[in-house]
Design goal:
The complex is a heterodimer.
Chain A lengths: L4 E10 L2 E11 L4 E5 L6 H8 L7 E8 L3 E4 L5 H9 L2 E4 L3 H4 L6 H11 L5 H14 L16 H13 L5 E5 L7 H18 L2 E6 L2 H7 L2 E6 L2 E7 H6 L4 H8 L5
Parallel strand pairs in A: 3-8, 3-9, 6-7, 7-8
Antiparallel strand pairs in A: 1-2, 1-4, 4-5, 9-10
Chain B lengths: L10 H16 L5 E2 L13 H10 L5 E6 L6 H14 L2 E2 L8 E5 L12 E5 L13 H9 L4 H14 L10 E3 L3 E3 L17 E6 L4 E5 L5 E3 L26 E5 L6 E5 L2 H9 L16
Parallel strand pairs in B: 2-3, 2-4, 4-5, 5-8
Antiparallel strand pairs in B: 1-9, 6-7, 6-10, 8-9, 11-12
Classes of the chains: A alpha/beta, B alpha/beta.
Chain lengths: 256, 289
């Protein structure tokens, strides 16, 4: 089986400081991988390098494209990479307002990716938007409201709908539950888990919240100071952490 | 007169603007950056159009200036005087007699010819600006032909108003490549953008020049189920009875009485000279100018 995403020895430096270094892993279709670590450990740098937002200094990121099989997304030209970014890839930002157009209605936000790949039938676009709003539990009569009129949790769900409408195969998520209160987090996680299973999505989730990866991720990568210190199945890493830092991370979770 | 270089601008500046114009004509619809100069009028009064006109005028040209269709409003009169003073070119109000027409907000009703040039004053040349504030990003979108966002604007129109409510500055795609803002002309004028004359667009504050060569394909963007429709007031001109010209609405008293008249004053006047009389019009008096 070919991996959907194959990362080889990826490194990104900010001057002399290490962003992330020596990262290699394979991600298979339908697999969800969590990246955990404290602030400044290089999680977001890694995610942005994978998603093509940052250019890494060394390494390769192979993606199994529909047309031509494995392609290195670092060396592919920009139009192709941006095309991937709005078809086969999706990126869910931590802050919904980074990923949404706040002055465009919810329907327009969801429809944007469809129009970006050539949809030119208003009725069809609107139907797809209404369908997706329903799937992320936003009532259809909010379709013409702007995201500014939405709560934080709704904005985050709208961002997810906007990203998944073109049926991507790989979703990058940067702290998707950050800044939401716990009951809203629980609903969002439930929804994400359902969508991931239903659409057979592969996903890479960056978070510092171990509960999120416990629920969503099949595999886990623990990062510290730009390096991967431990990898393994989620339950294995969380229940029997081997590296001292992983042990610290797991033991630091507050028990209620 | 002798204090000014011909048409106010110095020769080096005119050469720089002509290079931008030629580049614009070679890539229809592409916004060419140029080093816009300070002009003796405020931004928003047509500094871009004036610079383009200054760069293309020759002593043999006849200039016409239109402001919202009219030849006799402040903007039109002052720009016409400006070139009379600095270039000593002859001026006219008749569309057919002009070789260079500078315009704001309208295309003349009379069909333009191959030996004419029309210069548009453009406030904001970037059609994607209202949805994407970053210039870096919009230039990239033009470069990579990523124009989905333009339809998001039209989608918003339909979802809010039930129809595409954009009535002016209606975005067009030029020769199947660049999406372009046709300046704030009413969408009624959009079909006229495929014309025999050379069309030049100047944005002074934003420092951009773009162009449409003669007989270039210009398509107004739309949806399959909401096609583009040029619209005008459903009325005939009250002065000259024209059925097919773009109309201005004028409130005539405090009781809400109103009349409609051609926005193109030259077109209206020439029809009245020919003897056409509208519902509220009178027979044209005075000599034909």
């Amino acid at each position: 089986m070919t991996p959907l995403l194959k990362v080889e020895d990826l490194a990104k430096f900010y001057g002399k400081r290490v962003g992330c270094a020596g990262v290699s892993f394979d991600l298979y279709p339908g697999e969800v991988m969590g990246i955990v670590g404290e602030s400044g450990s290089g999680k977001s740098t890694l995610l942005n390098c994978l998603a093509g937002h940052l250019a890494p200094d060394t390494g390769a990121v192979w993606f199994d494209t529909r047309a031509e099989g494995l392609r290195d997304t670092i060396t592919m030209n920009e139009p192709e990479r941006r095309m991937l970014g709005r078809t086969d890839w999706a990126f869910v930002h931590q802050h919904a307002r980074d990923g949404l157009r706040m002055n465009v209605s919810a329907g327009g936000n969801v429809g944007e990716r469809l129009m970006a790949v050539g949809a030119r039938h208003y009725g069809d676009i609107r139907m797809a938007a209404a369908d997706w709003l329903g799937r992320v539990e936003i009532h259809e009569d909010r379709i013409d409201d702007r995201p500014t009129a939405f709560s934080g949790g709704m904005q985050q769900r709208l961002q997810i709908a906007r990203n998944l409408v073109t049926g991507p195969r790989l979703v990058f998520m940067d702290e998707p539950t950050g800044g939401l209160d716990v009951s809203v987090q629980a609903r969002l996680l439930d929804l994400l888990r359902g969508l991931v299973r239903e659409m057979n999505l592969s996903a890479i989730i960056v978070t510092h919240d171990l509960a999120v990866v416990r629920l969503l991720a099949d595999r886990l990568m623990v990062m510290k100071d730009g390096h991967v210190v431990e990898t393994g199945l989620t339950d294995q890493v969380l229940d029997d952490p081997q590296h001292p830092y992983s042990q610290l991370l797991v033991s630091s979770v507050l028990q209620v | 007169m002798s204090e000014y270089n011909f048409a106010y601008l110095d020769e080096q500046t005119k050469r720089m603007i002509r290079r931008a114009i030629l580049k614009g004509l070679a890539t229809p619809g592409y916004q060419v950056p140029f080093a816009s100069r300070e002009m003796p009028m405020p931004y928003g009064w047509g500094t871009g159009g004036v610079q383009v006109s200054a760069a293309i005028l020759t002593p043999a040209d006849t200039l016409k200036v239109i402001d919202q269709g009219a030849d006799d409003t402040t903007n039109a009169v002052s720009i016409r005087r400006f070139f009379e003073k600095t270039a000593a070119v002859s001026v006219t109000e008749a569309t057919g007699d002009a070789s260079v027409i500078q315009t704001r907000h309208r295309i003349p009703e009379e069909r333009l010819r191959e030996d004419q040039i029309i210069v548009y004053q453009v406030p904001i040349p970037e059609p994607l600006r209202f949805l994407e504030p970053s210039e870096v990003e919009t230039r990239k979108m033009h470069g990579l032909e990523e124009y989905g966002l333009m339809h998001v604007k039209l989608y918003e129109d339909i979802s809010q108003h039930g129809a595409i409510a954009t009535a002016y500055a209606y975005p067009v795609k030029v020769e199947g490549r660049y999406v372009m803002d046709p300046s704030p002309i009413p969408k009624f004028d959009n079909p006229k953008l495929e014309m025999a004359a050379i069309q030049l667009f100047g944005a002074g504050r934003e420092q951009r020049i773009y162009a449409i060569p003669p007989y270039t394909k210009v398509v107004s963007l739309d949806f399959e189920d909401h096609p583009f429709e040029p619209t005008k007031a459903d009325h005939a001109c009250d002065l000259c009875a024209a059925e097919n010209s773009y109309l201005d609405e004028l409130i005539t008293d405090d009781q809400g009485s109103r009349m409609f008249m051609c926005s193109d004053t030259d077109y209206c006047a020439s029809r009245r000279r020919q003897g056409h009389v509208g519902v509220k019009g009178t027979v044209f008096e005075g000599s034909a100018t």
